[in-house]
Design brief:
Elements lengths: L8 H27 L3 H25 L11 H12 L6 H26 L5 H27 L2
């Protein structure tokens, strides 16, 4: 019989936040890809989605020894990602995509920093994973700002 390791509440919650944050990021980015008219922007978005998927898989893997499954995002969060993509104008999609990336990454960074403070007793491994997601969100923010300068 497989015995589960005990998982601290803080570690579980922090990993859930990482997993759900990546789900929201991937969902939003995939919806933006559909709106983009520029191959360079599509490639950037695909790369961002890939990185979110990689971090999400690591979060799920870190929960596996505890026989705990990560929680999916809820219906309200799914609706939010759909609403964001609906706001992208067909006339100037790259400009709106850049604004969406900036806004989304700022919200994600705020949430991630808050969760690091909220769960200080989470394992260092889970805190390191939050650091990876923070680095990805900072990159997303920079790319969004760069896109806004180049968008027509």
């Amino acid at each position: 019989m497989n015995k589960a390791k005990p998982i601290s509440y803080q570690t579980q919650e922090l990993l859930n936040h990482v997993y759900q944050g990546c789900q929201m990021g991937m969902d939003s980015v995939h919806r933006l890809i559909e709106k983009s008219k520029c191959e360079k922007t599509k490639n950037l978005l695909l790369d961002l989605a890939h990185e979110h998927r990689r971090i999400m898989a690591i979060a799920a893997e870190q929960m596996r020894p505890y026989l705990t499954a990560p929680r999916d995002i809820g219906p309200m969060q799914k609706m939010r990602t759909r609403f964001v993509a609906m706001q992208v104008s067909p006339h100037h999609p790259e400009k709106r995509i850049s604004k969406t990336l900036v806004l989304g990454s700022r919200m994600a960074l705020k949430s991630l920093m808050s969760n690091l403070r909220r769960y200080p007793l989470a394992t260092s491994k889970s805190q390191h994973l939050v650091g990876e997601l923070i680095a990805l969100e900072k990159r997303t923010l920079r790319e969004g700002l760069r896109l806004s300068k180049n968008a027509v």
